[in-house]
Amino acid sequence: MAIVQNSRQRPEPSGQLEALIAKLTSAPQRRRAVAAIAEIAAGREQRELAERRIRRGIYAMHDAGLSQRDIARVAGLSQPEVSRRLKRREVVPATEVTPREIILQRSTGEISSTEMLKLLKGMTFSSSTPRKRSATDGAAGALGTTKQLAEALHDGLLSDEEYEAVRRAIARRRANAR
After folding, report:
1. Burial classification of residue 71, based on how many CB atoms lie within 10 Å of its CB (0-12 exposed, 13-18 middle, 19 or more buried)
2. Residue 140 near residue 148 (C-beta atoms within 8 A)
3. Burial degree of 28 (CB within 10 A; 0-12, 13-18, 19+)
4. What is the per-residue pLDDT across 108-130, written as a single tens digit (0 to 9) for each?
5. What is the pLDDT of residues 66-104, one digit of tens each?
6. Is 146 left (phi over 0), alpha (psi -120 to 50) or beta?
């Protein structure tokens, strides 16, 4: 049974989800389960995007000289949590948007697929993430890594065609730079 989550091309859920849905005996139960899976996926994408924005905001407020206590009030976090997040700060500048964030913006409907592809094709990508000072609060690592694109493809946030279009653009830019 193929599950269609929305109009964007997204891979079917893993065999594990298919097996769970197959346990349901009636068509109405299966439809409700499919709708719930889509709702949960959308909520997870929105939550991840919000967390990335909060993290970037924390860094920007800290760089502007605000106290951790003031940042905590604005972010709705405790001061110790703000301190932990600042200690795990990424190598990425706080003002930079990552490929994952752009992909999530499309996934949550903030930007179109065309806009997403344009932004991704225009980014500079490295082939690996840095090992030092990587964040551990769900951050993607370095700005513009090809690993982030592969993860988005694996997570169902990019279609095969979208992934290939961005990969070809990266390869063309690298070839022209030589």
Report:
1. buried
2. yes
3. exposed
4. 899 999 999 999 998 877 765 44
5. 999 999 999 999 999 999 989 888 654 555 788 888 999
6. alpha
